[in-house]
Amino acid sequence: MKLAYFAWVRERIGLAEEEVALPEGVETVGDLLGWLKGRGEGYGAALEAPEIIRVAIDHEHVDHSEPLAGAKEVAIFPPMTGG
Amino acid sequence: MAKTPDSSALAATMYDRGAASGSEVKQEDAGGGPRPEPSIEVRVTAERIDAGTVASRLAGSGAVGALVTFTGYCRDEGGRLKALELEHYPGMAEKQIGKIANEAASRWPILGCAAIHRHGLIAPGEEIVLVACTSAHRQAAFEAASFLMDFMKTSAPFWKREHLVDGTTGGWVEARDTDDAAANRWHRL
Hints:
The complex is a heterodimer. By secondary structure, chain A is α+β, with helices and mostly antiparallel strands. Chain A contains 3 helices and 5 strands, in the order βαβααβββ. Chain A has a single domain (2-72), classed as Ubiquitin-like (UB roll) (Roll), CATH 3.10.20. Chain A has helices at 7-13, 29-37, 41-46, and strands spanning 2-5, 17-19, 54-57, 60-62, 73-77. In chain A, a hairpin with a 2-residue loop joins β3 (54-57) and β4. The mean pLDDT of chain A is 97.
């Protein structure tokens, strides 16, 4: 599965994107954020407040309860500040 | 969490990105006849946006009685700011703006709209975003443009970062609760 990071999530993790193989038990967006948070210091800093983090699966906004099954690209980013 | 309006039924609607969009709104509609499919222009670009060109393209038809445009500009924040950097999610940005525009077209009897957002470095005094809507009567164009802007700010994947005149890169601009509240007022019960 491809993960894409934007804005300060990208900066804190230190990567714009990466391919990951999900461990067993990671089934929803919320599970994914929890798993990523424990992968290292940068991930921990990016995801220290997961409740404010926005996620899109294959370019569509989703809630943290959304299942990951079938997702090709999961994007993780802060609240949007365009306009 | 701010949610994009549910417009999945419209997701497959084709929208016109071309310069010929103005030609689609020639049908006379003031009497309540069938409204032509609105022309919708969605663009994400690093280039400057010429609001006048976009407006005249949208309004150049006898069916249009009202044109509302909104342009959002980069402020200098009291002389502190050298530029804003707009990061975006290519692909999703265009798709989300298209969904918002299609939702606006399904809620209001607009004849056309354009929603154009820049990315990259933007200097104070330059435009960041342009929304323009046309309709037979003013209310639809006013409301659709306001709706479009509210959701461009809260659900289109763009992020602002400040570049300061002292040469340093400032922080990421924080999302404002007032922007979420502005978007939420459009939610239907």
